[in-house]
Amino acid sequence: MDKSYAPTSSLNIFLVLPKAELHRHLEGSLRIETMLDIARKHGLTVPISILHLTGLVQIGDDEPYNFTNFLEKFKTLRLFYRSPEVITRVTREAVEDAARDNVRYMELRFTPVALSRAEKFPLKDVMHWVCDSANKTAEKFGIEVKLIASVNRHESPEIAEDVARLAAGMQDKGIVALDIAGNEAEFSSEPFAPIFREAKEAGLKITVHAGEWAGAENVRDAIEVLGADRIGHGVRIMEDKNIIALAKERDTVFEVCVTSNHQSGVVTSLRKHPLSKMIDAGLITTINTDDPSISRISLSSEFQMVHEKLGLSMKTLRDQTLNAVNAAFLPANERERLVEEFRKGLD
What is the CATH number of the domain that holds 334? Predict the structure, then answer.
């Protein structure tokens, strides 16, 4: 890694860079103002002021940084998906916010079960609403968006099977992959292996949350058991040199989310984040936001932070962006076209 850099406090430098993001959750991208509007319209029993609502759905500076507190935010967020119009709106705004941050390519993951639960919407309907809204907004704002359907480890394999089946049938609507998230410390991914194998055979790519709240062995399982093309987070791979070697052999790509890893207690401070060590070890890494609203960040501010706190040079940030574009879940010809566009933009 090139460690020569000149720290800068100007966000504008990072805002003008064309960026690509592979790991952003729709459910963690809601605008506070939108949540207040939804609460008023649907009579939700949540605080009606921005000051009080932010404490329920965003990580504050004085809160404990652990995964229990981090996941608590989603319990409140799930109250807001009260109508097709709301789901359409939050998808539209998530894509619009990314475009305004000069994200030119994004893979937005969403959890159909989470979006459907408040009003018991059919999964198929929810997935169509998200796809239609994302596609329309992407065209309007000139950003390329693909979608990743996500399931949770702590929920039943039957639910995951339904989501995978529907996702495989909606590849023409922009769904490109299947993801599994949730509490990896207490729930194994092994029961989901047959579902992920079938999804891959049906043409979907595979990305797996692993090596975040549990150790490097979960990264190995994600690669060998679930057939992961990419790993969400994966920072604890640095605990096992043999699994590092496996990931390098398989060209596995890591969707790293530095601020999120700090706020959820994976690392004790931003400066101690292992991203630089992952790069030096020869792993293929990318920089992502995870949940920009919960973490109160943008991809531009995340680039600025890793530049200033981790010492990643502008050249390294450019390389991280190209890593993301090269790892996009696109057909080869489309990916080559996108890489060329980004090379020109970054130059």
Answer: 3.20.20.140
- Interatomic CA distance for residues 41 and 44, integer angstroms: 8
Q: Is 72 a catalytic residue?
A: no
- Nearest to residue 211, comparing CAs of 282, 266, 148? 266
Q: How far apart are CA 185 and CA 198, in angstroms?
A: 25
Which residues does residue 150 pair with via DSSP β-bridges, in sequence order?
179
Is-contact 3 317, C-beta < 8 A? no
Residue 12, helix vs strand vs coil: helix
287 belongs to a structural domain:
yes
One digit per residue, the tens of pLDDT, for the chain of length 347 reads: 333 334 445 788 999 999 999 999 999 999 999 998 998 888 887 665 555 788 888 998 888 898 888 888 888 888 899 999 999 999 999 999 999 999 999 999 999 999 999 899 999 999 999 999 999 999 999 999 999 999 999 999 999 999 999 999 999 999 999 999 998 989 999 999 999 999 999 999 999 999 998 999 999 999 999 999 999 999 999 999 999 999 999 999 999 999 999 999 999 999 999 999 999 999 999 999 999 999 999 999 999 999 999 999 999 999 999 999 999 999 999 999 999 999 999 98
Q: Using an 8 Å Cβ cutoff, are 180 and 152 in contact?
A: yes
The span from the first CA to the last CA of the chain, in angstroms, equals 19
Q: Does residue 116 fall inside a structural domain?
A: yes
Look at residue 190 and tell me if it is in a domain: yes
Residue 139 forms part of a structural domain: yes
Q: How many CB atoms lie within 10 A of CB 114?
A: 20
- Indicate the number of domains in the chain: 1
The two tokens of residue 157 are 């394999």
- Cβ–Cβ < 8 Å for 310, 275: yes
Catalytic residue among 27, 212, 255, 302: 212
Name the token pair of 286.
Answer: 């990318």
Domain that residue 289 falls in: 11-346
What are residue 90's phi and psi, to 5 degrees?
Answer: -65, -30
Q: Which helix (H) or strand (E) holds 99?
A: helix 84-100
